[in-house]
Amino acid sequence: MKLQIPYHDLRSWLDLAGEIGEVRGVEGASWQEEIGMAAELLNHSDPAPAVLFDKIPGYPQGHRLLVNFFGGRRKSMTLGLPSELNNFQLSEAFTEAFQAITPIPYEFVDDGPILENIQMGDDVNVLSFPTPLWHELDGGRYIGTGSFNVTQDPDEGWVNLGTYRVMVHDEKSVGFYISPGKHGRIHRDKYMARQEPMPAAIVVGGDPLLFLMTCTEVPYGISEYDIAGGLRGKPYQVIKGKVTGLPIPANAEIVLEGYIDPKKRKPEGPFGEWTGYYGSGLRDEPYMDVKAIYYRNKPIIMGCPPQRPPDEISRYRSILRSGLLKQTLEKAGLSGIKAAWASEVGNTRMLLCIAIEQRYAGHATQVGHVASQCHIGAYAGKYVVVVDDDIDVSNLEEVIWAMITRSDPATSIDIIRNAWSTPLDPRIPPEDRLKGQLTNSRAIIDATRPYAWRDKFPLVNTPSPEYARKAREKFSYLLEG
To answer: Is residue 286's pLDDT more than 80?
Structure first.
């Protein structure tokens, strides 16, 4: 299925979301507390609208902030897919389009809306934008939650776009946290090994489709600009940063540009993270000296603050990552993969659920082990549950039912040790965290009917499709309000 992307930037996206009645406006909410409170309520509700905050006290009218962009019918609109598709179908259709594209390289242009306003040198002031305090115990204001960072490999020259949290330190510097192993971190480590400052740009408010691609596991060496261009069928237009020369989206809302000095650190954190905990305490981290800020008239910050899952972040990640997980397993040569779901409760990383049609003894074990260590599943994973294909893997109740009735604790669980994790994993012991030993274990749970006697397994106590159809036709009125 080919995507039909009906918007070209965040503003045209807002216009379309407004036309379907899924944008609300709020005026006068404070950045200190009220915007974060509202985001907490909204992000836990799929049907809730996107909300655009304006007239934020202390800031000019028109300096705005958007939260909860991905929910309701906005999900299909954002992905350019039919509105009648459910989450599972959206994931399958998007993955089909993603795998079929030919990447299209970005192209430089001389001008764009992002150049409507420019702060340089002494005029740079990150505090001129209404960045909220998202969570009560955050160590500061995070301008980068629905943002992405632009970096370039110093050896190979390719450009990476990645979503990493960005904390405001002061008028001219922002924190720049990246977990080990991420592509932007690899770029930064290369510059640090050379003892050279790393050029970077932080895009705060951009095309929602491009933002989603920066949240996706794109292979190393391929730019997210090119993937998103392939999905749109035309190159992304970028301008050349006046300070670093990096490609910056010509239609972005706000862009911070500068350098990260490998010898300089500032305290960063804590921050309420995607695990549902405050990830990492206060610690010294590299930061960016902001040399230039570009922004449109009446700029919009896009905020996607992580909350305890399931939340907005897990909504878009589950749709993006689940279909890719299924295709990754198939490309690894595994047969019988019927469905895969990166569960929202584990923010799509810590719990993976896969349904298979069993074809040989050991099939479920093989699938579970590959899923736990493939590109989609390796980072920060915890549990992989493999079930039979009569289970809806996107329905956690069905998955847990299969797990507790078809698995045996002593014989159905394999443990993998020394796997790739993250400082944000709350279960890593403090002493290991201090040493930089950021690994964990994985549980592979075979929740399928035992292959050797699957035909003798008790029948499921559920009506046949024909029986269920008759019940719906005759008695569905009983379920109506």
So the answer is: yes
Q: To 10 degrees, the CA torsion angle through 79, 85, 90, 92?
A: -140
Question: At residue 316, what is the residue type?
Answer: Y
Q: Is the peptide bond between 306 and the residue preceding it cis, with omega within 30 degrees of 0?
A: no
Given a cut of 80, whether residue 481 has pLDDT beyond it is no
The residue among 380, 400, 407, 402 whose CA lies nearest residue 389 is: 402
pTM, full prediction: 0.92
Let me know: does 347 contact 383? Beta carbons within 8 Å: no
User: How many other CB atoms sit within 10 Å of the CB of residue 438?
Assistant: 18
From the list 316, 330, 236, the residue with the least C-alpha distance to 274 is 316
Characterise 330 by phi-psi region: left (phi > 0), alpha (psi -120 to 50), beta (else): alpha
DSSP 216: S
Domains of the chain: 10-303 (2.30.110.10), 312-465 (3.40.1670.10)
Mean pLDDT over 79-106 rounds to 93
Give the C-alpha separation, 414 to 410, whole Å: 9
Q: Report the relative pairing of strands 159-162 and 147-152 from DSSP bridges.
A: antiparallel
